[in-house]
Amino acid sequence: MDDELLELQRQFEFAQQVKSSVRLSDRNVVELVQKLQELGVIDFDLLHTVTGKEYITQEQLRNEITREISKLGRVSVIDLADTIGVDLYHVEKQAQDVVLNDPGLMLVQGEIIPQSYWDSIAEEINERLQECSQIAVAELAGQLQVGSELVQSVLEPRLGTLVKARLEGGQLYTPAYVERVTAMVRGASRGIFVPSNLSALWAPLQQLVQETNGASGVAVENSFFQSIFNRLLKEEEMLGSLRAGTHWTPSAFATAQKECVDSSFSQNSYISYESMQKLGISQAVQFLQSRYPDGTPLAAVFIHSSMIEMLDSATEDAIEQNSWIDSLSVLPSSFTSQDANKMLLLCPSVQSALKAEKALILGESYVLSSGFIKGIYDQIEKEADAFSIQASTATLIHPSSKSSESTESIPANTDKGSKKKKGKSASTKAATVETVPDDEEDARPKSKRNQKKGRDSSSSQKLDSKAGGKKESVKAQESNNIIPPDEWVMKKIVDSVPEFEDDGTENPDSILKHLADHMKPMLINSLKERRKKIFTENADRMRRLIDDLQKKLDESFLNMQLYEKALDLFEDDQSTAVVLHRHLLRTTAATIADTLLHGLDIHNKMKNGTEVEESKTQDLVLLDSSERTALAKNLNGSLSKKALALVEALEGKRVDTFMVTFRDLAEESGLVLKKLDKKLERTLLHSYRKDLISQVSTESDPIALLAKVVSLLFIKIHNKALQAPGRAIAAAISHLKEKLDESAYKTLTDYQTATVTLLALMSASSGEEHDCSADRILTKRELLESQMPLLRTLVLGDSQPQQS
Predict the structure, then answer these.
(1) Looking at the predicted structure, is the pLDDT value of residue 453 above 70?
(2) Cβ–Cβ contacts within 10 Å for residue 471, how many?
(3) In the sheet that 366-369 helps form, which strands lie side by side, from edge to edge?
(4) How many Å apart are CA 380 and CA 118, to the nearest integer?
(5) Which residues are CB-neighbours of 187 under 8 A, at least 6 positions away?
(6) How far apart are CA 623 and CA 595, in angstroms?
(7) How far apart, in whole angstroms, are the C-alpha atoms of residue 145 and residue 404?
(8) Would you tell me the crossing angle of helices 511-566 and 471-482 to the nearest 10 degrees?
(9) Could you tell me which residues belong to the region Disordered (predicted)?
(10) Predicted TM-score of the model (pTM)
(11) Contact 553/411 with Cβ under 8 angstroms?
């Protein structure tokens, strides 16, 4: 059998060596291969070489790749393509299949590396480590021209076997080197007796290691030291606690801490968090609660229950004695007000007192009994009522103290003129003795009220509605004016409890300030209730006030219109007209203006809750210019503006301007003013004439008689009610010259001349006592008295003067 095989081999070798007589060209071969592939004889893929003259199967390509790997150990795919002569695409594809089918191979960055290669590299690294004790992985990666991650990944499974080393922080260390560094870490750590950050410890160790290794030493990473420290701690070669990986507290320090805390807490029954910080305990509350479960944590200190018992005893005594106590005064200085407040809330006596409303905590640390607070409050409440009344009436214009003498100095006003002492009106300056004195008023008798129609309360309602949108803000401002300020309240508290003055009013945490803040709302509520009561009481009084004001103005304003008509007679005589206008403004106009302003001011105060005495609403008021301005400014909104215009007109020279401003203010106030019509004018003139006749008949003063006679003559002749001052009597008599016969006119002028002479004598003798002057005055007065019947006959006798 063997011989036959040998014979066949020889024949096959001979057949191969024999050259064929028929040769195929390259083109024929290519066509033949294509034909065989079409016929399915060749059912596998064929790859061309880069020369294009050879075919190679994929299996053969893989075999050649495997052979090159076995031969070289580490081979590049690009080098394989050049060596085998096949396109790089096919080589890469088949190389991936080879690596995929062989777990001992890896394809890294275009290179095929077998595990045997890494084994040999590991052995070389191990040999180098024995020489230098440490090698950086980055250095190995640079030498092998691969990534550090790859080197680290292939070395990790070989550590302890092929590579006798420890990999830490990208460094390879020999066991002897690790033991040496471990000894350094152990010694340095055991030398620490206070809490330390391990990061600060690794720096000097690094320097020590580098000095030991010399110039060839590689810097050791902190993580290497940290891992050694963690291992030593786990093996209990060091005692202590590690927080956050780097904060090391030796057990010796922790023991000393606890002993110090125990000593302080047992002696004082409390310990402050500040002292805990100094001992190096940052989480003081958690530490103390775990060590003393029965203690109580506060804002700044940790206390034993005995501290609460001590404070409870002190506060209980203060409450029972109706007194007060500052809890901080019985606590150590390290306690804050928040601590004191929390302790007070834990005291049984304070809890029961608060529940029964027998005590109150102010400012976190002050405890005051309710009886103590009530005693102070009752006293302050009384004074606050007085303060409120004083504040609410501060702007109230009291009736002027002008005596009835001012009224009596107007000889023609009422019958009171006849009761004056003779010569009373003559005490004026000599410069005014030209005629009858300026301050003498003509008669202004009250007219009958039978023509007045009844009015309802709509005037009062209309006045109330004039405040407009500013009502609430004005009320708020008025309320603020009657609320005592904080300084006032604190002063009254100090008056009741002088010991509070030591705390001072500027300290915001003083008991004085806290007690004032507590009482202020109580005072405000009390004052508001009182004002509410006054509002209720004032409602009806306001209606009556407006009705009374309406009645007063009805008659006065009609008389004013009546007197105004008489001024038309003197429009041609400007100097006299000015005197008459000013006189009427200072007398009748001033009276009705003062009545209106005073009434509106009282109404405004009642509306704002100010208590006003009943007598103030009924008194006759005579105001000066500053008082009128003050009243006008106290009114609200448009009322104030129109009232100021009225005051300005009253100081002017024209009655018609005053009448316009007076009507505007009355209309704005909701008051209705009657217009003087013909019927009312006749009625008023008749009443005025009748009153003047009565006064002329009974007048005993020769000086006062002249003015009344002239007024009566103007009614009879011109049908006008003239109000003339003493300075205008002469001009008024001159105005009657054309309407009187010569004898009547001469009687008037002679009487007027004698009156002026008498007044001049009285003025000259004022302040002097001479018998001769007194005799002359008495003689002149007797002469005038003798002419009084003749003057009365002039206006009351049978011979009546002609009427215009």
Answers:
(1) no
(2) 16
(3) 324-326, 366-369, 359-362
(4) 100
(5) none
(6) 9
(7) 127
(8) 120
(9) 397-483
(10) 0.43
(11) no
